[in-house]
Amino acid sequence: MHGLGNDFVVVDAVSEPPPSTEFGNLARRVSHRRLGIGGDGLILILPGEKAPFRMRMFNPDGSEAEMCGNGVRCVARFVRERGLTGLDTVPIETGAGLLDLYLALDGDRVTSVRVNMGPARTLRGEIPMQGPPGEEALAFEFEASGRRFVGTAVSMGNPHCVVFVPDADAVPLRSIGPEIEHHALFPQRVNVHFAQVVSPRELIQRTWERGAGATPACGTGACACLAAAFLNGLTDRRATVHLPGGDLEIEMAEDRTVYMTGPAEAVFEGVWEPD
């Protein structure tokens, strides 16, 4: 499945037990684009404790992500269209907490998913990030790749660093992205986004994802970019975020709760036969 080109191998571990408990190793093998199925990560849909479903998402390098905005939309469409639930609002447990997903339907087909992504957090201790834990990580200066940047850090249940630039397409993402991802400021590494403000209701985003590299879309990242832009006085509370894979509609309420609306698509299905 994919959300705006951010693609995943999705495993139904509700109907039957998962094929392995070494999920990190399985993710590395399955996600390999030449020796496996290929994808930006492996998603397991498991029975939840506080909700019917729980999502676990593993990056191509085997590390586990707390959340994935594009991935969780795929999970919601999967469980509804595969008959695992009849709910129009689906609660799903994630490493970032319990999320509610609202399904737009055309008959039995899910056309889009709106996600309550929870609050955007900007305290250094919440990211997590080096420095005084109670200090907001807005418009801080740092160095990477021999250059100085101004960043804003946001936690959407996973860590993000947003840098505003005049031209997002001109950023040498593959050289700068890894430097910031592994920067000493971020003890758990960080997702890196370069965002261009087109208007108060429009952003362009390019992303280097922690553990995955350059990806065509990042849902939690789009939420972080909108939150960072609004908190820095650059946009309204609601904006369209243009990513290489397509558009997401992002809105931040007065209590800092962020809502994301976008599509999820199924591409193909098959059987994985491990050695």
What would a concise description of this structure say?
With 275 residues, the protein is α+β, with helices and mostly antiparallel strands.
Can you put this structure into words, describing what you see?
The protein has about 280 residues and is an alpha+beta fold. It folds into two domains: about 1-120, Diaminopimelate Epimerase, Chain A, domain 1, CATH 3.10.310; about 125-260, Diaminopimelate Epimerase, Chain A, domain 1, CATH 3.10.310.10. It has a 16-stranded mixed β-sheet that branches. It has a two-stranded antiparallel ribbon with strand order 1-2. A hairpin with a 5-residue loop joins strand 5 and strand 6 (about 65). The protein contains four helices and 18 strands. It starts with a strand and ends in a 13-residue tail after the last strand. The longest helix has 13 residues, at about 70-80.
Main traits of this protein?
single chain; about 280 residues; alpha+beta; Diaminopimelate Epimerase, Chain A, domain 1; two-stranded antiparallel ribbon; about 15% helix
